[in-house]
Each structure stands twice: as structure tokens, then as C-alpha cells.
Amino acid sequence: MIVDSHCHLIHEKNTLSIDEIIDNAKNNNVCKLLNISTQKDDFEQCIRLSETYEDVYTSIGIHPHESNQMNEYIYQKIFELSSHNKVVGIGETGLDYFYNHSKKKSQIDSFLQHIKVSQLTNLPLIIHMRDAEEDMIEIIEKEYKKKPFSGVIHCFTGSLSFAEKLLKIGFYFSVSGIITFKNSNELRDTVSNIPMNKIMIETDSPYLSPVPVRGTVNQPANILHTLEYMSKLYNVDLENFRDISTNNFFNLFKKAI
Fold it and tell me: How far, in Å, CA of 67 to CA of 82, rounded?
């Protein structure tokens, strides 16, 4: 069994129906999907989707691009919905200083609120990070000292020093189709130094289709290409890496069964 640890099933860029996406995934042994919410209007729809499809889990959170949506009401909503049996993670949250679609202060404030929910619920954070390593490490280390929490850096493209600091507190790293791109040599070098028991794989669909389907609308079924590439990167049998990355998902997202 393969798990897509991060996908966006209700995204407007999807060209297939949800039924088709899920059927294609199952036909390729991608049997569990973590559907990610990114804004307040996603919450109820993501919940309903997880109730409709047994093998679809969901997260609840506000993407850093939408961090201006975070307020006391939304914080309470995330906290309340986190008790749903199919909500297994908090996010997608984090910091994105590359696009800066939201002000840095707004992103930081929102990230801190998500951390608080994670600490209160013991649900792991799903973290987006781009060009914000210094602030992110400072925030995570400071808040972790107050009360430990768990998390995954999704679509990891950061530095080895960043990864090493988060490995010390048990964080996970999810690798997308970017690892297969021709110009990703630095990322491959970094990822190869992360212990395999802290690695997951994802599509981030409908984005980031891996080689050899790069340039198409991504879907969970395409995670097979990333799985194959990662097994070669770690020089292990494909089945071995499949089982390890799947176990890593369930080790982090303990509410998923």
C-alpha cells in the first residue's frame, strides 16, 4: 500500500473528477490519501469528502498565503473540527517569504495559532516553508520548548542544516515530484542525508507532477514515479521504501487508521 501524504482533491486546477482521481490512485495501489485544506472555505468540503471516501483523510488549516483569514473565530473552528475522526493533521500552515502573498507578521501570527492547536490536540502540523528557514526554526524551537508537538515539512526543499535541526525534535520530511526534476541535484544531496525513517512522499497534486509526466496536471496515482525515484536515491528495493514511507506516515499521523 502507498500513501499520498499531501494532495489537494478539491483544487480548481484538477481536471478529473474526484471519483476518477481516487479510482486512478487505487488502480496504482495508492490506497490512502491525505487531502489538505488551505483556507476557511475548504473546511466543510474537506470534511464531507473524508466522510464520503473511506480512504481519504483530511487536515484543517490556513495556508500562509491566506493567513489574513486567521482570527479568533477561525482558530476556534480549526480546534473544534480537529476532533472529527477523519481530521488527522493541522494545516497546511507555515511561512512563505518567496511569494509574500500575506504580510510576514500575519503569517507568523497564523503559524503560532496552528502550533497552539497542535499542542492542544496532539495532532501533527503540516508545514509549508519557503525562503523562511531562520524564522521558522526560531519559532518552532521556541514553541517546542513550551510544549512539544510533531510535524512534517511538506514538499521539502530546504537546507540540510534546517533539516538537521528539526530532526533533533523528531520532525518528518515529505518529498514531492521536485526530487525528480533535472535541476534538483542540491535537493537530492540534502534528502539523501535524511534518515529514511523520517521520509514520506507526496504529490502536492494538482501541482508538481514528477518526471516523466512533468507538465501535466498532477494526481495521486503519479506518486509511483516519485516512489521509484526515491527507492533508487536511497538504494533500496522499491517495496522496502514503499513500506518504510507508508509506516512513517502512520507513525506521524497516529489518528489515521
Answer: 19
Length of the chain (residues): 257
Q: How many CB atoms lie within 10 A of CB 186?
A: 11
What pTM value is reported for the model?
0.97
**257 — pLDDT class (breaks 50, 70, 90):** confident
* pLDDT digits 0-9 by tens, 148-198: 999 999 999 999 999 999 999 999 999 999 999 999 999 999 999 999 999
Q: What's the distance, CA 43 to chain centroid?
A: 16
pLDDT bracket for residue 237 (50, 70, 90):
very high
Instruction: Give the list of residues 6+ apart from residue 249 with CB closer than 8 angstroms, or none.
Output: 3, 5, 32, 34, 200, 256
- Is residue 43 a contact partner of residue 60, using CB atoms and an 8 Å limit? yes
Give the other-Cβ count within 10 Å of 222's Cβ.
25
For residue 257, which amino acid is it?
I
Element (H, E) at 128: strand 125-130
Collect all residues with Cβ–Cβ distance below 8 Å to 46 and sequence separation of at least 6.
Answer: 10, 35, 36, 37, 58, 59, 60
The phi-psi region of residue 235 (left if phi > 0; otherwise alpha if psi is between -120 and 50; otherwise beta) is: left
Task: Evaluate whether 41 touches 238 at the Cβ level (below 8 Å).
Answer: no
- Residue 107: the pLDDT is 98
